[in-house]
Each structure stands twice: as C-alpha cells, then as structure tokens.
Design a protein that fits this description.
This protein is of the alpha+beta class. Helix content is 25%, strand content 32%. The protein contains two helices and ten strands; from the N terminus they run ααββββββββββ. The strands form two sheets. Strands 1, 2, 3, 4 and 7 form a five-stranded antiparallel β-sheet that branches.
C-alpha cells in the first residue's frame, strides 16, 4: 500500500536551484582549463628545449667538444650538432648532427608556435647581440658547458585572435630558459 506522503512528483524549486548552482560551479572550474589548453604549449616547448640543452651540455663535457644548437625554423626542428673537425681551407669548425642513444638529440617545434625574434650574444662579456635570420639559427655550447646568451620571442598562433606572446631568456650557465609573458630584448 502506498502512502500519500511517499509519492513525490517533480522537483522542488530548491532542488532545481541547487542543481543549477552545482552546474555553474563545475563550469567555472572546467571552462578555464579548456581555454588554457593551448597556454601549455609555450611552457612545454620551453621544457623540451631545456632538456635538449642539458643533453648538449652533458655531451660537451663528456667529449670535450663544442656543441651547436641548430634551429631549423622552416622544418620546425631543433637539433644538437657536435664539433667534428676543422675545415681545411678556412680553419672553421665543422659540425655534424649527433646520434646519441643515451640522450635526446633533437626536438620538434610545435607547428602553432612561431619564432618572431632570435637574439644571440656574439661577444662574451659584452652586450653585443645579433638578431639572426629566422631561416637558419644556431648558437653554441662550449666544451666546458657554457652557452651563448640567447633571447627568443615566440607567439602561439593557435590561440586566435589573441595570439599570446612569450619571451624566453637562456641563462648561459644553468642552461635553463626563463619564461616571460611579453617579448624580451637582450640585456
């Protein structure tokens, strides 16, 4: 036998308000994470690049040779190249890509990231920098593990129309990139 009080039809206004409030709270928590999905691309790139630099550092110390960090913007690839001798005519160092099974030897630049500026210190201990052509970019890590000073300005083109910009500044001694929310100039 059914009791009149045990039968309930529909939802009360209070129950509806609570459900709508819970949905609203869940959306406020989840929506920013959907929007910020692309914001992780720049920090992830910075971390991958830093990992590559640390591999070059270890290779430089182990083999006591210069390491060239070659950035191929057109093909979205960054590669470690190792000193392999000197050119007999010019006396310039010759570099060849490393193939090292213990460390990573290259990384891909995400297609949505656009390198806008690339500054490299050209004289040790001075403020002379050169802005390199964005086709063929490279800088060096010495046999004792010290890099040239580098400033890279990038844009995340996947986040239209805002296209967040970032500046990466390489600490030449720790080989870590500091990430900034705006473009940076060499110091």
């Amino acid at each position: 036998m059914l009791n009149k009080n045990s039968i309930k039809s529909g939802f009360s206004l209070l129950e509806m308000v609570i459900v709508i409030a819970l949905i609203g709270i869940a959306m406020t928590i989840m929506l920013p994470s959907f929007r910020k999905k692309n914001d992780l691309q720049i920090p992830s790139f910075r971390d991958s690049f830093t990992l590559l630099l640390h591999a070059a550092y270890l290779n430089a110390l182990e083999k006591n040779k210069f390491q060239k960090i070659y950035v191929d913007v057109k093909n979205n690839k960054i590669q470690i190249q190792e000193e392999s001798g000197k050119d007999k005519l010019t006396g310039d160092l010759v570099f060849t890509p490393i193939k090292n099974s213990r460390f990573i030897d290259s990384i891909e630049i995400p297609r949505d990231l656009e390198i806008r500026n690339f500054y490299i210190a050209i004289k040790e201990g001075t403020k002379d920098h050169v802005k390199q052509d964005l086709g063929s970019i490279f800088f060096f890590i010495t046999p004792d593990g010290i890099a040239q000073e580098v400033v890279i300005n990038i844009v995340d083109a996947s986040d239209k129309p805002s296209q967040p910009e970032a500046g990466l500044i390489l600490n030449p001694f720790t080989l870590n990139f500091e990430l900034y929310d705006t473009f940076q100039k060499p110091s």
